[in-house]
Amino acid sequence: MSSNPSLTVEEAAELLKISKYTLYELIKKGEIPAQRVGRQLRLDREVLEHYLRGSRSNYQALSIASGQRDVRSSGAAPGVRFTGSHDPVVELLLEFGSHAALDLSTSFVGSMEGLIELYKGQADIAGVHLWDDNTETYNLPFVKYLLPGEEVTVVNLVQRVQGWIVPSGNPLGLKSWEDLGRKGVRLVNRQRGSGTRLRLDSYVHKAKLNPSAILGYGLEESTHYGVAYRVAAGEADAGIGVQAAADRLGLEFIPLFNERYDLVSCSPFTGTEEWRHILDILNSAVFQKAVQRLVGYDTSLTGKIMNL
């Protein structure tokens, strides 16, 4: 084994000055060797340095000498790439997937960016919850607009409720969307492009509020747990998120709206065994019962195909 420490995919991508998704493709094609350590891929630094210098035969020889296994030559793939919006049920899906020998990696970049990455071929599945004001429906208008000409499948993961996450006892007495404009309320926001942020921005626009006048509007978190943590730590008075995140940290929850969270994927991935495994999990009674143990979720549509 090489004396150089092995690198994660993220570290290797930074060294090579490429995105991690480009690196996955190079690994899949057999152009860069990698080895699996548990559920993760590891890459040898010396091998990558030879790759940078263009010494292909040298880095292939080094990979053999260091004991690295070429993932592509063994028939293994870098895993199923999940991107898009965060939700605790996604984490539950990952747990169930691991028991089904599914290697799922996640990147919580928000619903809009998730669909864009799916269109670019940088992801296999995007998790989305995007409300369209014009049609008053979720997700499908955005899928049609951002994935033109693609053979797309949309399947429901879960229906959920979002609302104010506030300290126990709701000391400021928040009750509705209108409280967003109250003076002195310190907000923690979601990142731009997330479904939650788009819904909040839509209300701000309709109510003709000035975002710069809202304390904490620029304070962003990429997950519901991040929002809940900020509130629990006293760094914000309120944020919008799912009830499960509030419940996890012993916070109070004031419901504001219900929404549909869907999984979006394109052909050819939807013809793979991995996709069929995911559909089997979603439609299994044991998975749906596990979701129902979390507060604020409805599984009546879980696993159902949403018609475009």
Describe this structure as you would to a colleague.
By secondary structure, the protein is α/β, with parallel strands linked by helices. The protein folds into two domains: 6-65, Multidrug-efflux Transporter Regulator, Chain: A, Domain 2 (Orthogonal Bundle); 79-308, D-Maltodextrin-Binding Protein, domain 2 (3-Layer(aba) Sandwich). Helix content is 35%, strand content 23%. The protein has twelve helices and 14 strands. Strands 4, 5, 6, 9, 10, 11, 12, 13 and 14 form a nine-stranded mixed beta sheet that branches. The longest helix has 12 residues, at 88-99. The model is unreliable at 55-77 (pLDDT under 50).
